[in-house]
Amino acid sequence: MIYFFQQALNAAQLGSVYALIALGYTMVYGVLSMINFAHGDLFMVGAFLCFVGVVVLNLSFIPVLLMAMAGVTMLGVATERVAYRPLRNAPKASAIITSLGVGIFLEHFTLGLSPYPKYIPPLLPSFSFNAWGVSVSTFQLATISISFILMLALYLVVNKTRVGLAMRAISADRGIVPLMGVPVDRIIALTFALGSGLGGAAGVMYAMAYPVIDPYIGIIIGWKAFISAVIGGIGNIRGAVLGAYILGTVEIMTAAFLPSTYRDLVAFSLLLILLIFRPHGLLGRVESQKV
Amino acid sequence: MKIKNIPIALMIFFVLAGCGKFKNDTVRIGVIAEITGAIPAVGASCKNGAQMAAKEINDAGGIMVDGVIKKIELFIEDSASKPEQAATVTQKLITYSKVIAIVGPNSSSNALPAAEIAEKAGMVLMTPWSTDPKTTIDAKSGQPKKFVFRACFTDTFEGKVLGGFARKELKANKVAILYDVASDVLKIQAEIFRKSFEENGGTIVAFETYTKGDKDFSAQFTKIKSAKPDLIFLPSYYTDVPLQVQQARRLGIKVPFLGSDAWSSEDLVRMCGSDCEGSYLLNHYSPGTTNPVTQKFIAQYRAQFGGATPDDVAALAYDALGVLAKAIALAGKLDRSAVRDALSQVPSYPGVTGVIKYSAGSGDPVKGAVILRIKNGGFAWFADAQP
To answer: Helix or strand or coil: residue A288?
Structure first.
């Protein structure tokens, strides 16, 4: 039983990191109907900004977190302005391919600045304590609680503010919203800002928990977060969070109870089956094509 | 000028420019190192070791070839620790740079494709650090390759030494193993260790895997923890070990770790901190050795590279270039087959990592290993393991 709880804690931590990134994917899809494949690489930039903050600038945890979030936010808004806005009315495929290009650019630009994997010394005091037989580390607690706070903040922004209302309106029907006097470009930029900010925070959490970073960490995590968003229903914020925790749990539990070599195989097969039977994801709406 | 003529003129220009490159007044040796990518310390060491050896030989005059003394010219290429890039740069060194021999790549996942290409092209390739037995064996015929050599021992020897050491010296009864299922060489190390440890009477209580790029090992270590091992065998590259050991410690695992030569770089200790203190690893040489040849090498390396202690990759690359230079001098001409034959004829070469001697038909030297222990933030000699 203790073993199960230990693994459940591991799953919660992994799921939290995926959730922060999955939210970025889902929000951008919601307002723009496009998958921003560069989002995983924005997360990677967040981790590198964390490195700069800790090793070069010697800041403590909160300033580093804020700096990384601010930096990635600005980068996200910049990529939207430069790479995606000109393609707003182009075929969807163009925007998606462009996002792949932006991602590759970010990876190699960072590689050029930092060819070697970087090590980040611990930001928070690192110790584990024993809770009824389960080993709990400060990192796990920090990741889970900070993610939770950020997700709660996002929920409040999206559901309780006018700006959030505008975002949801654009998600529902992009064509008619400008007629209502909503500055669509600004709201879209804000959506990118929020999504990227969360991605930056995820980068810092990740760097704390897995302190050796290189320019390619965004690829795998990005894909897994994207899959989480799809499982939960792409475009749906609650779905992204749900999907992320489901993926984290399936990955950890598969490794926990089956030979760990089968982890990715089983995890993704289950997801494949889920998508066959429910292609719009768990919380996604079935969208009918209007002719 | 007509538009058609310009591209043709350019083509002729480039072809002629390419021809001009193949001047015969230096001994051209290629070096493939993992300079960027996942294991840059390995690449940097290889580059440094090879450069130091080349400079030493050139300062002493050079190599006598075709009756003329020629200096060594190194062509250093980056494989970025990616097998496809290793293959590409091997091709480049063979067809474009037209080198006489290649030193490198180091990591077996890069060395394997490079070795295949070199063998087919009849290019002498000496890998300093690749321990995968398959590197020098032809995949189709099962016979040793003719043009591929290595400067180090193989995993067959390494796994046996580690299995015996864990059982007899560390007196472990139950060992858990975590290895990279996507890496051929690390998988082989895990399997040979398991066989050797079980033959010595021990039990393997967990045989868990991860894959390249994984950063979260909490599930695997939680499983390992519940199997209650006395020791954990962890053949991982030096950039993965800190994450793995730290995560294990955070989960409450207190037993020591045993690593393979993949742990090689002291950067590992810097990144891992106190969590790795007391763990053991196998290595190709010990910086604390009393061997005068090795001491001289270490002092020279420190002087040339800002006080850094050379790791095993640097020492092996230095030896690799040294042995090649000896073979080229023995062959007396810049012919790849002649150099290949000469390598088997070099009498025992006193390398800084031990004596290197190739018997006819084999690219694997018979060499010994050392077991090191991580103490006070560095590697300290613990035991010797002779074949």
So the answer is: coil
Regions of chain B where pLDDT drops below 70: 1-4, 9, 12-23
Indicate the residue of A126, A130, A210 with minimum beta-carbon distance to B216. Answer: A210
- On whether the B23-153+292-356 domain is CATH 3.40.50.2300, my answer is yes
Chain A residues whose CB is inside 8 A of the B220 CB are 255, 260
- Domains of chain A (ranges, CATH numbers): 2-122+139-277 (1.10.3470)
Cα A181 to Cα B258: distance, rounded to the nearest angstrom: 66
The answer to whether the CB of B110 falls within 8 A of the CB of B133 is no
CA dist B320 and B126 (Å) reads 7
pLDDT at A262: 83
Superfamily the domain B156-283+371-385 falls into:
Response regulator (3.40.50.2300)
Give me the sign of the Cα torsion angle B75, B312, B158, B237: negative
* CB < 8 Å to B222, chain A: 3, 6-7, 10, 256
Query: Order of strands, edge to edge, in the sheet holding B26-33?
Result: B63-65, B68-78, B26-33, B101-103, B124-127, B148-150
- Beta bridge partners, A175, equal none
Distance from CA of B269 to the nearest CA of A (A): 11
Cβ B371 vs Cβ B165: under 8 Å? yes
ipTM of the complex: 0.76
Residue A101 pLDDT > 80: yes
Per-residue burial over A113-127, b if 16 or more Cβ lie within 10 Å, else e, is ebbbbbbbeebeeee
With 70 as the cut, is the pLDDT of residue A34 above it? yes
Question: What's the pTM value of the predicted model, to 2 decimals?
Answer: 0.81
Q: Encoding tokens for residue B367?
A: 């060499």
Taking the alpha carbons at both ends of chain B, their separation in whole angstroms is 72
* Residue reference for tokens 């740079």: B97
Domain residue spans of chain B: 23-153+292-356, 156-283+371-385
Identify the three-state secondary structure at position B127. strand
Per-residue model confidence (pLDDT) at position B49 = 94
Residues A107 and A41: beta-carbon distance below 8 Å: yes
Residue A287 has pLDDT above 70, yes or no: no
Size of interface A-B (CB pairs under 8 A): 84
What's the rounded Cα separation, in Å, for the pair B36 and B45?
12
Please give the pLDDT value at position A291. Answer: 53
Name chain B contacts of A209, Cβ cutoff 8 Å: 216
Q: What is the DSSP letter of B137?
A: B
d(CA A64, CA A84): 28
- Note the pLDDT tens digit of each residue in B225-256: 999 999 999 999 998 999 999 999 988 899 99
- Going by their DSSP bridges, the two strands B68-78 and B63-65 should be labelled as antiparallel
* Helix-then-strand count for chain A, H and E: 10, 4
CB atoms within 10 A of CB B83: 18
The predicted-structure confidence for B300-326, as pLDDT tens digits, reads as follows 999 999 888 899 999 999 999 999 999
In 3D space, the residue among B73, B69, B21 whose CA is nearest the CA of residue B51 turns out to be B73
Cβ pair A211:B216 closer than 8 A: no
